[in-house]
From TrEMBL:
GO terms for molecular function: phenylacetyl-CoA 1,2-epoxidase activity. PANTHER family: 1,2-PHENYLACETYL-COA EPOXIDASE, SUBUNIT A, PHENYLACETIC ACID DEGRADATION PROTEIN PAA. GO terms for biological process: phenylacetate catabolic process. It holds the Pfam family PaaA_PaaC. SUPFAM superfamilies: Ferritin-like. GO terms for cellular component: cytosol. It comes from Hwanghaeella grinnelliae. This is 1,2-phenylacetyl-CoA epoxidase subunit A.
Length: 311
């Protein structure tokens, strides 16, 4: 490692400059980014599945059209993110192979089932809401391609969050049965949404270095608190109750205090033992295998076109 290059890198990061693909960077910075961005891409990619489950059963044509375009957006997010990771010298095939053989992680949240239509509404409201809190912060990431991908993704996620909240409101203001469905979905998705922010700061092995390099700009616990503070008034407005008896506004800090997350459940899901982990991965592997002929045909077509140009 060249000490002058290292100093230039450190100075650029400290001055809020963006590191670009051709700039020198420490090998561990590169590796951390590949890990985080590829896992983020995988999350968007696997995240299509719980919602995809409801496309054929959406309660109206309007809801179906919205859901389809939202799922399409998530596919787009995974593509921007795979492209951002590719600028660090890793191939898309290698990233997908790591997902398919279980080496790479993706967000724990997508390993929970969507039992009713209200779960789809709750995902938009809570899961996309949590994703925005995390991603707004990542817009200031020191790595240029990742921070820029976050700008567009945040705009789209913001729309997703609003449509989820609006769908939740329709249920919460509907018949007693619909309100009950909304409450039950909130009960199911509340704690898993808080888990999206990762382990608490004291148990987060990557945080210190990632914060120093300005890959992450806020700590896991700070972002989780921001999400809770933002979401409780929204739940109140819906007339729904968050399933946490310890939740209370702390007059001194101005923040909501909340109960302890079930960390055992969190690690079980992260390590592959959640309700849907096996099903989700199998589904992705099958989609990859069934799409092989499309990739082969596209490559053959591209080769033929290139050969024609040469001739
Ligand atoms: N689900 C699955 N794995 C998780 C989760 C989670 N909710 N939270 C943390 N982990 C993993 C980390 O990836 C890390 O594993 P690894 O070292 O094998 O990669 C381990 O648990 C320890 O966690 P941290 O040290 O806190 O890891 P990190 O500094 O990467 O922070 C975080 C985790 C906050 C998720 C960060 O990676 C991040 O901000 N990622 C980008 C956002 C993202 O991926 N969002 C996906 C969901 S949003 C959506 O797709 C709609």
């Amino acid at each position: 490692e060249d000490p002058a290059k290292r100093t230039a890198f450190d100075e650029k990061v400290a001055a809020e400059g963006k590191i670009e693909p051709r700039d020198w960077m420490p090998e561990k910075y590169r590796k951390t980014l590949v890990r985080q961005i590829s896992q983020h891409a995988h999350s968007e990619y696997v995240g299509m599945l719980p919602e995809g489950n409801w496309v054929t059963r959406a309660p109206s044509l309007r809801r179906k059209a919205i859901l389809l375009s939202k799922i399409q957006d998530e596919a787009g997010h995974s593509l921007y993110l795979y492209s951002a990771a590719e600028t660090l010298g890793v191939s898309r095939d290698a990233m997908l192979e790591a997902l398919h053989d279980g080496r790479a992680k993706y967000s724990s949240i997508f390993n929970y089932p969507t039992l009713t239509w209200a779960d789809v509404a709750a995902i938009g409201w809570l899961v996309d809401g949590a994703a925005i809190v995390n991603q707004v912060s990542l817009q200031r990431c020191s790595y240029g391609p990742y921070s820029r991908a976050m700008v567009r993704i945040c705009k789209e996620e913001s729309f997703h969050q609003r449509q989820g909240y609006e769908a939740m409101m329709a249920l919460a203001q509907g018949t007693p049965e619909q309100k009950k469905m909304a409450q039950e979905a909130l009960n199911r998705w509340w704690w898993p949404s808080l888990m999206m922010f990762g382990p608490s700061d004291k148990d987060s092995p990557n945080s210190e270095q990632s914060m120093a390099w300005r890959i992450k700009r806020d700590s896991n616990d700070d972002l989780r608190q921001r999400f809770v503070d933002m979401t409780i008034p929204q739940a109140d407005y819906l007339g729904l109750t968050v399933p946490d008896p310890e939740l209370k506004l702390n007059a001194e800090t101005g923040h909501y205090d909340f109960g302890e997350i079930d960390w055992d459940e969190f690690w079980q899901v992260v390590n592959g033992n959640g309700i849907c982990n096996r099903e989700r991965l199998q589904n992705r592997r099958d989609a990859w295998d069934k799409g092989a002929w499309v990739r082969e045909a596209a490559m053959a077509h591209a080769d033929k076109k290139a050969a024609r140009k040469l001739a």
